[in-house]
Amino acid sequence: MLLQSVSANLYLVYEEWSDMKRSKIRMLLQSPHPQDLVLVKGWVRTRRDSKGFSFIEINDGSCLKNIQVIAQSSLPHYDDIQKLTTGSAVAISGALVASQGKGQLWEIQASDVTIISLAPESYPLQKKRHSDEFLRTIAHLRPRTNKYGAVFRIRSELSYAIHRFFRDRGFYYIHSPIITGSDCEGAGEMFRVTTLNPGDRLPDGHAFDASRDFFGRETGLTVSGQLSAEMFALALGDVYTFGPTFRAENSNTRRHAAEFWMIEPEMAFCNLSENMDMGETFIRYLIDHALHNCSEDMELFAKFVDPSLMATLDHILTSEFVRLPYREAVDILSAAGRSFEYPVRFGTDLQSEHEKYLTEIHFKRPVILYDYPKSIKPFYMRVNDDRQTVAAMDILAPGIGEIVGGSQREERLDILEARMDELGMNRADYEWYLDSRRYGSVPHSGFGMGFERLIMMITGITNIRDVIPFPRTPGNIEF
Fold first, then answer.
1. Cα angle: 366, vertex 372, 377; to 5 degrees
2. CA dihedral for 166, 167, 172, 176, sign (positive or negative)
3. What pLDDT, on the 0 to 100 scale, is given for residue 245?
4. What secondary structure letter does DSSP report for 211?
5. What digits encode the pLDDT tens for the residues 357-410?
6. Which has the least CB within 10 A, 89, 98, 124, 141?
């Protein structure tokens, strides 16, 4: 045993265990039997003194529940133990025994308490409920709260589930580039990537000389990995990308962020109907996985965030998804007898209020809209025989709105080129993409799911800033 002095009255105690490893609280709480010796490292949530001992609540982030530690006054450096504050880090060794208190099966009878660090009284996370707005200002500390610890454990588990879903179905995982010279959506909302200084402009002062830039042309952060995924789908069959995407859209709503994660499967020899099948199956799978593998954390959200959450998720799991042409959706909304903020007519994009009406009031279940007007959709979507619409689809979920957007891709070279010309796109920038239609083109489809919106749906959290570790929104680039 080695004692290292860190102050006149405080010592760190380090003890090596040759026959054991550090235990996770999650595993200890599920243990079927007591254990003579355990070692737990974590953070103090609360501490209170009683006659002859202290109760210390410890959490190591592995689960929602704390484990109670009984520290007897006979322990070495007990005076230092009584100085432990919320947020302090400790290592506890002792015996796992049946708890005498209510609401817990096990507790630890400490044989040693190692103080790793003491948190000062100014530690901002005290034993009370803090507002989401306040916690966003300390996003580096909010994972230590019950709510945010739970949401990020769920986020981790759903990441695993996504990879498992596609692997079990024979998909290949593709790493699409983050820096790109192609604007997938054609909306001009890309963040520019440049090494040029602001003063390095053309003589007219209006534009950067992109030929002098690092890549020799204009580049930006990707808004989608789809175009890259298509190239691999037309070689490997079924593929998917899952990574960060970026959009320079000056939108400060609860559902938008400048940096977000997208899951984008792409499937060869797949039509729009099969694409919708895959999207529906994917949503059900992920909800079911969260309910079965994150039950304790899910209960927190059902109790404190959205009391209707479990009923909503169960309804999505058990309801048949409505499949509705866009034109019919416009007719339903026009006949709703409601004064929508945004007027509805053929050729306009549907807004959140329209999605909410369709999923929560009219149908009361998820809705898949398809065959959108081509005038409001990107160049790569397959033009339908009516020449007015494209084979696009959106999956709308109650409580969240659009969670999936996809399409059958335009596999016909001549029509794809005509669409690009119609939209004023420079074909030379997409020659590599057009090659995939020149050489062995086949029908193929895919979709994109916003990972944060998925987590919002599954947890009942209503603000995207609260389901991503460090949110990037207009005017906000802290941490």
1. 115
2. positive
3. 95
4. G
5. 999 999 999 999 999 999 999 999 999 999 999 999 999 998 888 999 999 999
6. 98
